Amino acid sequence: MHKTVDDKIDQWFEDRGIVANGKTMSQAIKTLEETTELIDAINTNNLLEIVDAVGDIYVTLRGVCKVQGIDLTFCAEAAYNEIKDRKGYLRPDGTFVREHDRLPEKLTSDDPYTPGPGPLDGKTAQQQFEEVARKVDEETGRNKQMSAKEYWDSLPKRQNKTRWVDDPNDPKIIPFKEDSKNVD
């Protein structure tokens, strides 16, 4: 009998007791870790690491499904059925702009219709949307690619660092002092 790679992955999960004893959240956390590795690989343009991370993400997603008792192909089909009728396009900055079904036909068509003075100020709905989206992107840096470290460093800094002390009877956050000898 010829086994597919999916069969081999599923058997790997079975052999290690992950299907019987594993937790869905643990598998999801592994997926998140692998996704972070993918982002780092993309930011460093390391093709081998990208391939490795994508494969690892696939395996961890199969783990989520196996532990949860659902079929990964069913999940992919459900996702495709959700997006298959979406219309839109990818802007040069990498943002996918969905075409909204609720907009009036004249605003979504390609004809040269341009509204008169009013909320669109003589621009087509698409031009107005792109202008607003570009401004948001510039102000927030939303589409800038960065490593996890750059993202962490970009977060607002707090004066007092804290660390988590895990006491099952009284969990609390204790202020962390730079000169403290009790450092993890």
Number of helices: 8
**Total beta-strand segments:** 4
How big is the Rg? 24 Å
Biggest sheet strand line-up: 1-2
Strand content: 5-15%
Model description:
The chain is mainly alpha-helical. It folds into two domains: 78 residues, Helix Hairpins (Orthogonal Bundle), CATH 1.10.287; 53 residues, no CATH class. The protein contains eight helices and four strands. Helix 1 crosses helix 4 and helix 3 packs antiparallel against helix 4. The longest helix has 22 residues. The protein is extended, with a radius of gyration of 24 Å.
Describe the structure in brief.
52% of the residues lie in helices and 9% in strands. It has 184 residues and is mainly alpha-helical. It has two domains: 5-82, Helix Hairpins, CATH 1.10.287; 88-140, no CATH class.
List keywords for this structure.
184 residues, mainly alpha, Helix Hairpins, 2 domains, two-stranded antiparallel sheet, two-stranded antiparallel ribbon, 8 helices
Topology:
Elements: H1 5-15, H2 18-21, H3 24-43, H4 47-68, H5 72-83, E1 88-90, E2 96-98, H6 105-108, H7 125-140, H8 148-154, E3 161-165, E4 172-176
Antiparallel strand pairs: 1-2, 3-4
Helix pairs in contact: 1-4, 3-4
